[in-house]
Amino acid sequence: MRREILLSGLLIVIISSIAMGYPPPYYIYCVHELLFGLMAIWIFSLAFPGHILKKITEFCTLGFIIGVLILSPMISLCVPHYSVHFTGDATVHVNHLTRVIGERPYNSESETMAAEYIREVLKQNGYDPEGSPNIYVRVKGKREEVVFLCAHYDTVPGSPGADDNASGVSILLELDIPESPEYTFVLAFFTGEEAGLVESRYYAQDTEDPIIAVVCIDTVGVGRDFHISSVKKNRTTSFALSQLVYGLSEEGQPSIGPLISDHVPFNERGIPAVGLTRSTDREYPHIHSEQDTFVEGELLEKTGETVQKIIMHFSQSATPYRCVLMPVVISCIFSFIGALLFLHFLDFSDRGSSSPPT
What we know:
Number of domains: 2
Largest sheet: 7 strands, mixed
Oligomer: single chain
Number of helices: 12
Radius of gyration: 24 Å
Number of strands: 7
Strand content: 5-15%
Strand order of the largest sheet: 1-3-2-4-7-5-6
Distance between the termini: 26 Å
């Protein structure tokens, strides 16, 4: 009977989490491996029944259930809370890029016009932009390690690219990086994303910067859900970063996919990298079409506040990932102790129910 209860509890946790979009069981990057391992233990214990193997199976199942239920709430509690305001009007840049310039295909005249506009805005904001066709701004910090924030400004031919990706560019243009931050910041405006991540791939392969975090902003102007996206390759490398951004955000969901953008080449090199997105092909069918003309200013503001919190965190914290790693350790300890106590309680209950009446 105990096994049926444990299996039912495990299935309820997983199914309800998928239905509710709750991050821990469905989105934690190693959950698939943990589930496959747990399934293997169950199959082995059913094929070769024995008291010790039964105890191991029950312990692992209980530990998994407890761990996935408490990890993300623990992270939300432990990650610092910053009061920030994304004050810039990002829609001004979206309107200029989409209505004044329009489509911005890779290696086109309009792409050059967009690059000039980006440089001019950066200069007005007090930065000294460098590079062509990719545009970079570097803000020197106390440490050499780099926090890399990027967005692409090119589009597919025929699309004005309001959401994809004037939305990301507009947020990057309005960010406020404080003076003398703890870590060095680089803002990168890539082109060639729609041509197969051409420019970001070149950069990721050639850079010698000690990059500790990459945050790519792409298609964040339309859509119901806010995804903190990584890819399967080297996904554990980005675990701490994704959970940190999840803790800083009030709405994000760490996920594998659905965004393939300029963070991917960094992830493939083993550099912690995530992409922020709101739009998937299912949620916004106008991506890569002439109808990609609309963004919601409120969503730009929400995303901008999340990215501004990321900047504040890496600007102020000398150990930016500790607030994520500590909850992981604590959750593992709680899972271990909780599973032991619960199994002890079940054993005590079984002995009490099986005792003959006096």
